[in-house]
Write a structure and sequence with these properties.
- The chain is α+β, with helices and mostly antiparallel strands.
- It has 2 domains: about 30 residues, no CATH class; about 140 residues, Nucleoside Triphosphate Pyrophosphohydrolase (Alpha-Beta Complex).
- It has 4 helices and 9 strands.
- A 4-stranded mixed β-sheet has the order 6-3-8-7, with helices on both faces. The chain has a 3-stranded antiparallel β-sheet with strand order 5-4-9.
- Strand 4 and strand 5 form a beta hairpin.
- The protein is globular, with a radius of gyration of 17 Å.
Amino acid sequence: MRGRPGGALFFDCSGCSRSGQSTLSQARAFKIPQSVLVVIHTPALEVLLIERADAPGFWQSVTGSKDRLDESYVETAVREVREETGLDALAPDCRLSDWSLENVYEIYPQWLHRYAPGVTHNTEHLFGLCVSQARPVVLNPREHRAQQWLPWRGAAERCYSPSNAEAIGWLPRLGG
């Protein structure tokens, strides 16, 4: 169950019983259209990209939505990095930086069903995570199927999402 602005909760009951009654197992909560993008990189500006399991060829940085409205962007970034790579963004050899930048973009049509009816745009807050060196990460196979470390220019070219490519382009100025 996810909160929505104004404290209301929205559910998709397309699979609920005929009476319209839902149970938590039948109802599907919608994603909050507030997310993070975390560019994981080394001091030498090598960038980690991960390939989505549900969209082969879709290479990206770590991304993810808030789990609840009162979750801070920093909390979301730390959680998503852990869930998607197994890395601890707060470890001594890591430096999480809030880039104080946001993208507002139109949600790809193939993922609109994850959001409440009428939601078409997402606000994405940008972070950098500098790790001491490139290293293998532990992927969640339900979410991602491959990983690679690339020089920042090559990583920007490889990204499917224009906003992700643009964020990587900021790396030499913001994350070095």
